[in-house]
Design goal:
Radius of gyration: 72 Å
Shape: rod-shaped
Largest sheet: none
Order of helices and strands: HHHHHHHH
Distance between the termini: 161 Å
Oligomer: single chain
Number of helices: 8
Length: 226
């Protein structure tokens, strides 16, 4: 069928004929409606109730002059019950919306406001506001006073240590004093035994004590020699 349509719809030359356009210009349209042929209708075409208007048209117009000369009357707008209900509904909705907005603004203002109790608690926790420069000066002065106090305590501690050292003898002096006291005691015992006429005095002493007596005699002899 496609090929059939192709053969059937083949273009063929034809003779075109159109009416000849007039070279002259048409007259302009009439501005006066009374002279226009479209407004010139027969009397039979007008309705039966248009007697007064027909009479007025004979006088030269389409509308009665008496109707035009009468003063215009303002007709009051009538409102139905449904319209009143709708207006009341709209007024209630707007009033409710305004109340909700006012309540939200009040809640926001209350949330933004800080209570006096909270302010007092914050001031007690944080303390009074102090400028930064004054705070730095106060910290520096506290540090200096602390350093002076520590130095004074250290000096006192060193003085006490020095006093204790001066009061106590040295370890070597303590040992020397013990040795001398022991030697004096040994010599005193030996002289007492000799004075009592005891025979073989050395047998009453131990070897260490005898050695100590010999060292003491040697030290005394050295001192006498020098």
């Amino acid at each position: 069928r496609k090929y059939q349509n192709r053969f059937l719809t083949q273009p063929a030359p034809f003779a075109f004929s159109a009416p000849i356009r007039r070279s002259s210009r048409q007259p302009p349209p009439v501005k006066d409606p009374a002279a226009d042929w479209r407004f010139k209708r027969p009397r039979s075409a007008r309705p039966a109730f248009a007697g007064a208007s027909a009479k007025a048209s004979d006088e030269g117009g389409h509308f009665p002059l008496a109707a035009l000369r009468r003063p215009s009357m303002a007709v009051p707008a009538r409102t139905t019950e449904k319209t009143i209900q709708w207006q009341q509904h709209i007024a209630n909705v707007l009033q409710e919306r305004r109340e909700n907005e006012w309540q939200k603004r009040q809640e926001l203002e209350k949330a933004r406001e800080v209570s006096n109790i909270m302010k007092v608690r914050v001031q007690q926790a944080v303390g009074p506001a102090e400028p930064l420069e004054e705070k730095i000066e106060r910290i520096v002065s506290d540090k200096r006073q602390g350093n002076h106090r520590v130095m004074h305590q250290q000096v006192k501690h060193l003085q006490r240590i020095k006093e204790r050292v001066n009061r106590r003898p040295l370890l070597m002096e303590q040992a020397d004093s013990l040795v001398r006291a022991r030697r004096r005691a040994l010599f005193r015992v030996r002289s007492t035994l000799e004075a009592a006429g005891v025979r073989d005095v050395d047998s009453h002493f131990q070897d260490e004590e005898l050695d100590e007596l010999e060292r003491a005699q040697g030290a005394d002899a050295g001192k006498d020699f020098y």
